[in-house]
Amino acid sequence: MKLIDIFDDRYEHVGTEDKKEAHRQGLWHRTFSALALNPTSRRVLLQKKTPGRYTFDRPDYADITVGGHYHAGEDIPDGVREVHEELGLLVTYSDLHPIGLRQTAVTLAPDYIEREFQHWHLLPLDVDLDAIPLSDAEVAGLVDIDLDDAITLAQGDTESVPARYATRTERGLTYTEGSLSRTELVPNYLKLDQLYLRLFVAAHRYCGGERAHLFW
Known about the structure:
Blueprint: E1 3-7, E2 13-18, H1 19-25, E3 28-38, E4 43-49, E5 62-64, E6 66-69, H2 81-87, E7 97-109, E8 112-124, E9 139-146, H3 147-155, E10 160-169, E11 172-181, H4 187-190, H5 195-207
Helix pairs in contact: 3-5
């Protein structure tokens, strides 16, 4: 049983619950999320998840770099452990740039309802793709794309952009060149509040030296 903190819709703590049960009932909880970017090369990373990690069929989308649930009793900075767990990199919370809180609710399956307070961060990583070890079996690989291309893709101005891939195989990580299409992005993140675009624009502003009002 993995306990997480439960909140009401005003973000007031009301107790704890098993994570699976929280999703089954659609209880409000909080998560840690981060978009990794390389400020020098002006590139961003998206994550490919290993198949079969959910109780429902989930297409092989290119998701946000790092994300996970806070354990019961954890404070917001404690979420940085997700970076180590998923990417295999040791960073401190001070290395991250918090950009805001997103309150969202979506039904992904009859027994999987997400009602989340998402704490969003930019994760500056001045490292090459092949320097990221990917220690978590939950992560199947990473997609590395140019930041300007990412914005164009999220806006719908193009249907595909060049991409570099790091993919987990039986022999370890392999690296290939390819492309990323708009259909490979999480549809809900393209609609509603345009999460992909908001994050990519925040990364663009960060690379330009801005540090406030990044997450419009």
